[in-house]
Amino acid sequence: MTKRVLTVAAVVVGALVLGETVALACGDKFVLLGRGARVARSKYPSTILIYMNPSSRVPAADKEFHVEAVLKAAGHKAQVAESESELEKALASGKYDMVLADYNDVPALRKDAAAVSSKPVVLPLLYKPTPSELSAAEKEAQCLVRPSKASRDLLVVVDQTLAERRKGVGAICDGVVGN
Hints:
Blueprint: H1 2-37, E1 47-51, H2 58-65, H3 67-73, E2 77-81, H4 84-92, E3 98-102, H5 106-114, E4 121-125, H6 131-140, H7 151-167
Parallel strand pairs: 1-2, 1-3, 3-4
């Protein structure tokens, strides 16, 4: 009987000593992965076109902050247009609720978006702006998307804009009006 108790005690102590390291390593890996994977589902899942004009900063913003992936994780159907011809073709399909584009591309895009049947809201995206660009953008636009490590920032602006659109109220991003 004492041999059995000693054997069980040795196994338990061995499992605690050796198992603690494995348990901590497994837990650490899960926490690190879990932190980056949490994205709240959108209340207004929509179809969003992201214009990644190669001469703009949007591709760099997507590379750093995974704009497309964050939108998809939140339940949106995000599609990318990487050229002007892809953009025109996508807009002509008339199936988008919103277009995300570089701040400098927005004025021309608003005209194009107003001409299609779905009349998508065009939301300006600011990534690493110069101080003068930021100042001008804040004076001109009612809402801006500034990608950040907190994917929630992007999703809050997108959801607020889409909520207004769904209510039939003109979205605050439809016009360029001062704050």
